[in-house]
């Protein structure tokens, strides 16, 4: 049996894997939807784009469900606090995500241009809004969220929805949007041909440039303009899950401390830069398959940077730093983490194998002539 400290570290890493899995797998779905008005110049172009993700979006969204389930079971205090504080934001994301399957199903039911434009707008909202809101959420995590625990460990959130829409968080939202547009454009370059693929390849350099500039601005803002958090009392890595048994202080530059202590961790943000630049170069060389891999690595680097920077914090508190949730004091019990780890080791390979099988079966581009010849089989 693994010790409590190791299990907590493993579940922190697994949470990161699930978030990265969601960003990579569902990210290109969201990116394709966001690109509908840019790449899709005609109704057939947009049908081709929609059908590149239509058969796989449900499976990709499993990563979001897995992430939420992991937070609920492994980090219950984080689940309770985050879903209380971000309730309206999460509801907004769910409403936007609901538009996606409805748009897929209803868009082609009627031929009218107004009807189809309305559902195209719904799909665009379903792509842009979740990408921005998830980025905004990460931006608020890095700044701290106003909540506190009382002596009975009951959490009280003292902020509001509009307080989440602060300048730094909105910048993070734009980073997220640029990232998923890059990823979605690369996916379209892989899964389409002709003018749709050419326009998607043309979007990639601009999306890469926007992502790198915005990512750099966010990094500079963290280094120079945002106070980080640090535990100032002794860290009891295998102690009880009680966030009030520590002291925490805010200080400038604290979010960079992990990179100073462990220089190898700089590989994570570097992956965001190198992956994005490699994607740009591979798209120019028309190596679209490899470009999708490097784009995925760039997404992993951007998402991973937030986790590595904040470690060991899961959700800092801006109003009462001592209430901040960390890897060491917000987890489930030792037994729960152990049982869940066994279940994860059994089911995660099955999910990965099934996902690989689905993409192998559905390999190859979606072509306009296929939709024309057998329109009833396509969205």
From TrEMBL:
Belongs to the cytochrome ubiquinol oxidase subunit 2 family. It is a multi-pass membrane protein. Keywords: Cell membrane, Electron transport, Heme, Iron, Membrane, Metal-binding, Transmembrane, Transmembrane helix, Transport. GO terms for molecular function: electron transfer activity; metal ion binding; oxidoreductase activity, acting on diphenols and related substances as donors, oxygen as acceptor. It holds the Pfam family Cyt_bd_oxida_II. It is found in: Cell membrane. InterPro entries: Cyt-d_oxidase_su2. The chain crosses the membrane at residues 12-39, 60-78, 84-102, 122-142, 162-190, 202-224, 262-283, 290-315, 335-359. One of its GO terms (cellular component) is plasma membrane. One of its GO terms (biological process) is aerobic electron transport chain. Its main location: membrane. It comes from the Bacteria. This is Cytochrome bd-I ubiquinol oxidase subunit 2 apoprotein.
